[in-house]
Amino acid sequence: MEVSIKHSAKLLEQANHIVLTTHIHPDGDAMGSLLALYAYLLAQGKCVKMLLDDEVPRSFKFLVDWDKIEGPQDMVHEVDLLVILDASDLERIGKVKEVVKAPMLNIDHHVSNLKFADYWYIDSQAAATGELIYQLLIEVDAVITGNMAAALFTAIATDCGFFRYANTSAQTLKIASELVTLGAKPHMISESLDTKPRAVIEILPKVLETLEVIDCGANGQIAMLTLSQDILANFKDETEGFINYPRNIEGVEIAIMFKETGERSIRVSLRSKSVDVSALALAFGGGGHARAAGCTITEPLSKAKALIIDAAKRQMAKTAGVNHAQRDN
Ligand code: AMP
Ligand code: MN
Ligand code: MN
Q1: What ranges do the domains of the chain cover?
Q2: Tens digit of pLDDT per residue, the chain (329 long)?
Q3: Best mutation site among 92, 237, 242 for ligand 1, i.e. most ligand atoms within 8 A of its Cβ?
Q4: Centre of ligand 1 from the C-alpha of residue 315, in Å
Q5: 5-194: which CATH topology?
Q6: What is d(CA 154, CA 81) in angstroms, rounded to the nearest whole number?
Q7: Nearest ligand, CA of residue 155?
């Protein structure tokens, strides 16, 4: 059932043993929301555990308590509530769903959310799940420490491209401002996120060599990067930001990055200027937001590319059709 922020707060208050989790391939929103809510619940004297079916990416290890995050090895018994953050479908939490059997509360902002949980609070207008966690903490009059503010600022800033993307609202900036008042240091957070091992910078020429641009006439262009297994072997999850190169090319409507994580496992990232790429990703079992979405395709690289390019072209034509109809009315 759908719940309000107030009801979500009540569910947390009534629970004693709480497990928090978020999506695999965690991003800043996943990590920051998880760690901020963890800090609050711990301060409330709750018995709380963070489980994640993935590694914590190197770039988020500046956030306090990242090392308290555990893998879903064994069954966790007698859990009152499983809180699922920033995940739009149950598959996204991986094995955590197998080791915890408890009522689920899903707090999320994906327009593609499948409403799979027992209780859900979804606000697709929010730029990040971090905004929702902030609202929840305000609702319960929580003491927001400097570390919690840093985690939430990281969550929000990373999901809206540091306040540059279309999801950045007045509310996003207001919350960010309040988090800075509470001790978040934007320059330190952005520096931590931007600092990379030298090898990641040195691989850039190889990555940019894979750039392909398809001209779709009046509908605009599709620009793509393809990271084959041998390119990826040099650096694991350090591809954040690469998609901005095709995305920033003049005339490009849809940017795509293909990552060959296995022989028949292709992770696809999609970005757009106006086309709804979440619908496109959803059609392949993924999800996301209107202008940033993703999916995984279990086909060889060339087949996956052909499927996605074809779907992207169709989505662009559809959007152009709608725009024409609106203009003609
Ligand atoms: P990414 O391209 O990985 O940065 O993801 C962009 C957006 O799409 C994020 O909001 C992700 O949560 C979402 N997303 C990416 N991959 C998937 C997937 N396999 N299933 C559902 N949502 C996804
Ligand atoms: Mn996320
Ligand atoms: Mn998010």
Answers
A1: 5-194, 199-328
A2: 999 999 999 999 999 999 999 999 999 999 999 999 999 999 999 999 999 999 999 999 999 999 999 999 999 999 999 999 999 999 999 999 999 999 999 999 999 999 999 999 999 999 999 999 999 999 999 999 999 999 999 999 999 999 999 999 999 999 999 999 999 999 999 999 999 999 899 999 999 999 999 999 999 999 999 999 999 987 777 898 999 999 999 999 999 999 999 999 999 999 999 999 999 999 999 999 999 999 999 999 999 999 999 999 999 998 877 766 655 44
A3: 92
A4: 18
A5: inorganic pyrophosphatase (n-terminal core) (3.90.1640)
A6: 25
A7: 3
The letter for the amino acid at 192 is S
Task: Please indicate whether residue 106, judged by its CB atom, sits closer than 6 Å to ligand 1.
Answer: no
DSSP state, residue 119: E
User: CA-to-CA distance for 230 and 227, rounded, in angstroms?
Assistant: 8
Which two structure tokens, joined as six digits, stand for 45?
Answer: 């004297």
The CATH number of the structural domain formed by 199-328 is 3.10.310.30
Domains 5-194 and 199-328 share a fold: no
Which residue in this structure is represented by tokens 């499983």? 82
pTM of the model: 0.95
DSSP letter (8 states) at residue 55: P
